[in-house]
Predict the structure of SnoaL-like domain-containing protein.
Amino acid sequence: MKLKSIIYLAATALLIPSLFIYAKKSDYMEKKEQVAALLKAIETGASEPVAVINPNKYIQHNLGVSDGLAGFGKLLQQLPPHSAKVNTIRVFQDGDYVFAHTDYNFFGPKIGFDIFRFENGKIVEHWDNLQEKPATANPSGHTMTDGTTAIKDLDKTVANKQVVKNFVEDILVKNKMEKLAGYFDGDNYIQHNPLIPDQLSGLGAALGEMAKQGITMKYDKIHKVLGEGNFVLVVSEGHLGGRHSSFYDLFRVEHGKIAEHWDTIEEIPGKDQWKNDNGKF
């Protein structure tokens, strides 16, 4: 009886589609690995990693993409053949959320942050923020993605998220510039924004130059604060130069102070251009 059962199970297994086999195996993979594989599939065209997306529920917040798994597939079909390149530099997990920092060639060179929400082991929601990749490094020689990738201080995740949230609220939302220095260790600050140099003094000088040119930057609302250890990502809504924009800011915290910063800024199109009704945030 046992032998017959084994033969039956073996025969049944041979009939299971490969995609289903991958989905079962993926239950034992780290969510971060699943996300990295899914993003890489944009470049390789591999179908197996897409099995991590729930085909019955996939809420899309990229306003240029139609809702659902079909919308994701349609977008990939529009890519020029062999044009996509995906190099994911950093991947983090905060509960059911996984967020990644990626160097793309996706309809042109871009730097992006992607956030995926898992539910019952499947991805059910996606947000992102993409910015055109500059041709040169910033005034201090940094790119938008270089720098440390090591995740540490996992026991300080909650505290670090609070530090960064307070910084964004105080400085970028409420403009309480008198509190600025308290969030940094003197002038020690590494900056990856393509237009701003290192050091706190460099940030102040850059903001002053923007003001002289009449370029205003205003954060209106924080939508998400996600973190793992010494890295914290803040998703905010505001205006840059009067244009409705989405700000994704990744901070590295060291000894309770902000030590490093990466970001992407994307203009939010008018609602008449949206391909889904889920909103940017």
